[in-house]
Amino acid sequence: MQPAVYRILDANLDRAREGLRVIEEWCRFGLNHAEFTEQCKHLRQELATWHHSDLRSARNTPDDPGTGLTHANEATRGTIAHVLQANFCRVEEALRVLEEYGKVYRQDLTEAVKHMRYQVYTLESQLITQHRHQKLHQAMLYLITSPSETVFETVEAALKGGLTLVQYRDKDADDLTRLNHARALRRMCHEYGALFIVNDRIDLALAVDADGVHLGQHDFPVELARQMLGSQRIIGRSTHNGDDLYRAIQEGADYVGVGPVYETPTKAGRPAAGLDCVRHALEQCPIPWFAIGGIDANTVHDVLAAGAQRVSVVRAIMQAEQPTLAVQYFMAQLDQKRRSQMGQKFAKQDSITDPWM
């Protein structure tokens, strides 16, 4: 029995360390996150102290029937999130095997691995949160869906155009329809590496494992939503004036919608807040904010000129003849705005530091 146990321990020590290295590389080069990188490195090194020569010497790769086994899901990884998820699962499974078989090898190995397993669970949670918030900060264009017989085709076309943030909004459909649509859209968004947000419904967001929820002014308080959703998921809040914006920031919203800038049938009966709300957000909002309301190819230039760096749209994409091109047009305008601001920032810095100016 001893050689078999040793081979199991050897294989799973290798498996856990390999998986941690994959995660560590993304923390180091993808996120530039020193703390996460150090955590992965520490775990790898701690596992290495248990990888004794007696375990290594029991290795018998030529006679291992598992070396030729594979699964279709292992052949491709659609996104970085898929890579990280697969390797966290690999590490956690390996640690569980080490914990169980360690009981017939050394009790101190079992205790050490059990402690490490909980550390990995915590790291996974922190990394998911970091990944989601990083993508939120990078997002410039936010698509909010409207009921449509072609909602799936339209959203996928938008994703092909480079869209990275989608909110599912349908206030009239029955719950079963919304559940099925949300599941399908969440799966589609994640295949393209985009965040998926659910409008209003915290229960629906949890049911489909959405990346977050967007709340209106008369929906759940952000604090209660955070208790239900946990720290990993994103919470957005609609704001219509300066007071709304201040409260959303104080409540701990991760991002806000600012508007409606122009009158829109999506918010029937609500008067337009105008470009002043954009200028106010530019001065007062430290968290990501998206100008919203009647923004299309004709109005986006004025919204950007007023200071917006991110915009939310509904009809301009959902009703577009070619949603992919519509997304690419908005992205080009937003990117041009970002580049212009970066150029102005660098020019200002140069004027301050250049002694010849």
TrEMBL record:
- For the region Thiamine-phosphate synthase, give the residue spans: 120-357
CDD domains referenced in this protein's UniProt entry, alphabetically = TMP_TenI
Task: Give the highest taxon in the source lineage.
Answer: Bacteria
Q: Which Pfam families match?
A: ThiD2, TMP-TENI
UniProt-annotated stretches for the region Unknown: 1-119
Q: Kindly state what the record says about how the cofactor is bound.
A: Binds 1 Mg(2+) ion per subunit.
Name the UniProt key words of this record, in alphabetical order.
Magnesium, Metal-binding, Thiamine biosynthesis, Transferase
What Gene Ontology cellular-component terms does the record carry? Answer: cytoplasm
The record's InterPro entries line, in alphabetical order, gives: Aldolase_TIM (IPR013785), ThiamineP_synth_sf (IPR036206), ThiamineP_synth_TenI (IPR022998), ThiD2 (IPR041397), TMP_synthase (IPR034291), TMP_synthase_cyanobac_bac (IPR016229)
MF GO annotations? magnesium ion binding; thiamine-phosphate diphosphorylase activity
Q: Which SUPFAM superfamilies match?
A: Thiamin phosphate synthase
Which amino acid positions bind 2-[(2R,5Z)-2-carboxy-4-methylthiazol-5(2H)-ylidene]ethyl phosphate, per UniProt?
T264, P265, T266, G294
Residues recorded as binding 4-amino-2-methyl-5-(diphosphooxymethyl)pyrimidine, renumbered to this chain, are: Q167, Y168, R169, D170, K171, N199, S238, K267
Reaction(s) catalysed by this chain's protein: 4-methyl-5-(2-phosphooxyethyl)-thiazole + 4-amino-2-methyl-5-(diphosphooxymethyl)pyrimidine + H(+) = thiamine phosphate + diphosphate; 2-[(2R,5Z)-2-carboxy-4-methylthiazol-5(2H)-ylidene]ethyl phosphate + 4-amino-2-methyl-5-(diphosphooxymethyl)pyrimidine + 2 H(+) = thiamine phosphate + CO2 + diphosphate; 2-(2-carboxy-4-methylthiazol-5-yl)ethyl phosphate + 4-amino-2-methyl-5-(diphosphooxymethyl)pyrimidine + 2 H(+) = thiamine phosphate + CO2 + diphosphate
Family statement: Belongs to the thiamine-phosphate synthase family.
> Function of this protein?
Condenses 4-methyl-5-(beta-hydroxyethyl)thiazole monophosphate (THZ-P) and 2-methyl-4-amino-5-hydroxymethyl pyrimidine pyrophosphate (HMP-PP) to form thiamine monophosphate (TMP).
Q: What is this protein called?
A: Thiamine-phosphate synthase
Q: Which species does the entry assign this protein to?
A: Myxacorys almedinensis A
